[in-house]
Amino acid sequence: MESIKFFDYYKTLNNEYIKDFKSNDGKIIGFYCSDIPEELIHAAGFLPYRIRGSENFDFNKADALLSKFNCSFIRSTLNNILNERYSFLDGFILANTCDHVRRIYDILKMKYEPIKKNEKHLFFISLPHTYSLEGLKWIYEEILQFKNSIEHNFKINIGIEEVKNALNIYEENKTLLSKINEFRTSKDPKLTGTDFIKITISNNSVRKEFANLQLKEILRYLEEEAVPISQSKKIRARLMLVGSSVDNPSFIEILEHAGGIIVADNLCTGSRNFLNQNLFEFSNEANIDKIPTNYMNLQDLDSLIWYISYNTYNKILCPRMMNAHQYRLSLLKEFIKKYKIQGIILQRIEFCDLHGVENGLLAHEIQNELGLPIINLDREYFLGDTGRLKTRIEAFLEKIE
Fold first, then answer.
1. Are residues 263 and 118 in the same domain?
2. Which of 158, 223, 347, 363 has the CB geometry, 3.0–4.6 Å to 377, for a possible disulfide?
3. Are 212 and 202 in contact (CB under 8 A)?
4. CB burial readout 114-153, b (16+ within 10 A) else e
5. Minimal CA–CA distance to 146: which of 160, 126, 166, 129?
6. Number of neighbouring beta carbons within 10 Å of residue 59
7. Which residue in 169, 124, 127, 130 sits closest to 146, CA to CA?
8. Angle at which helices 99-111 and 72-82 pack, to 10 degrees?
9. CB contact set of 16 (below 8 Å; sequence gap of 6+)
10. How far apart are the first and last CA of the chain?
C-alpha cells in the first residue's frame, strides 16, 4: 500500500501537494483541533491544514515564550511556527480547546512578526465547555463571526453554492474514511492502526476533493488486492487506543510492534474525523427545531451556517466537554463490544490535564464494569523512550494472553 502516492503526504509538513497548491496562489489556513468549521475554509477556496509538531527537534524558541509545563506537542508546534517551518500558511485559526492551545493564540498575536505585520491572518473561535441549546447558539455566533472575518481579511465572498459543495465533499470524505476503517476493525483486518493514522494525517494535509480521489484508490486496493494481516504475522491482541492527539505514525508502530493491532481508536486525529453522533440527544437537548437535517434543501446561507454549527458542535468529543463523560464512556463500551477489543491503551502527552483526568476515570470505570486489561501510558511528543514503551507493551500483551 505504501506505493500509493497518498502515503507520501504525511511524511513532510510542506508536502508536494502543498507546494503545487501554493504555486497556483492557493491559500492555506492552519488549525490545531477538530472543532473548527473546516467546511467554511474549504468553501472559501482555501486548504484547511492540521498543524503538527513533526520535524521539530528542540524547544529553544518555544521555551522562551511558553512554560515547560505545557505539553510537548504544543511546544513542538510553536517551535515549528517560530522556525518558519509553517511559512506556507496564510493564516491560523485557533480555539480555546485547552489552555495550551489557547496560549498559542496569545503568543502568535503578540510575538509572531508575520501576524503583527498583518502578513498572515489570525482567527479565534471561542467554544463552550458543555452541550446545551445555549452552547449551540454560542457556536453559531462564533462561526458566523469567523465567516465574516475570513471574507473581510481575504476580500472574498462565501456563497451558498460554495458551502453546499464543500459540505458534499466533506460528507463523501467521511464516508470513504469510514469504509476504509472497516478494513481495520474487521474480524480479519487488512489495515493496521499505523497505516490508518498515515491515511488520516495525509487526509488533513490536502484539499478534500483531492483526498477523496486518493481514498477511493486506497479503498479499491483494500477491496481487491490487500490480504489479511494474519497471513504475514500473528495477531496477538485486538487493541483500542484512547487519549491525546497522535500525529506520529511511529508511535502507533511501536504499539503494534509486538503483535498487537490497533483496530479502533477515539483520537481526534483518528476516527473522530468521521464519527457521526448526536450529543444533544444524550444531553437531553433533542428538540432543536431550527437545525435542518438535509443541507441540500436549504436555500439561505444562515441555515447552512446553523447546519455547520450543529455538526461542528457534535464533533467535539474530547474531555474538554464537561457534561459528556458518560457519553464518551458509552461510546468506548460500544467499540469494545462491536470490535471485539481485548485490551485498551490509554495514553496522554505529559502535562495534558484533560486526558490525564479522563484516562484515570476511564481506567477505573472500564476495569470495574468490564474487567478489560488496560495500560495507562504517559509520554512525551518526542519518541525518546521507545525501549521503555516496547517493554511495557510486550508485558501488556502477555497479560492479555
1. no
2. 347
3. no
4. bbeeeebbbbbbebbeebeeebbebbbebbbebbebbeee
5. 126
6. 17
7. 124
8. 20
9. 8, 9
10. 30
Residue 272 has phi, psi (to 5 degrees) of -65, -10
Instruction: Give CA–CA dist 273/264, Å, rounded.
Output: 13
pLDDT tens across 235-281, in order?
999 999 999 999 999 999 999 999 999 999 999 999 988 887 666 55
Residues 137 and 185 in one domain: no
Q: Out of 156, 173, 198, pick the residue that ends a domain.
A: 156
Contact status, residue 92 vs residue 120, Cβ threshold 8 Å: yes
Residue found under cell 440527544: 281
The number of domains in the chain is 2
Mean pLDDT of 349-359: 95
Domain that holds residue 168: 163-276+319-400
Task: Say whether both 246 and 358 belong to one domain.
Answer: yes
Question: For residue 174, is pLDDT > 50?
Answer: yes
| One-letter amino acid of 32 | Y
CATH number of the domain bearing residue 142: 3.40.50.11890
pTM higher than 0.70 for the full model? yes
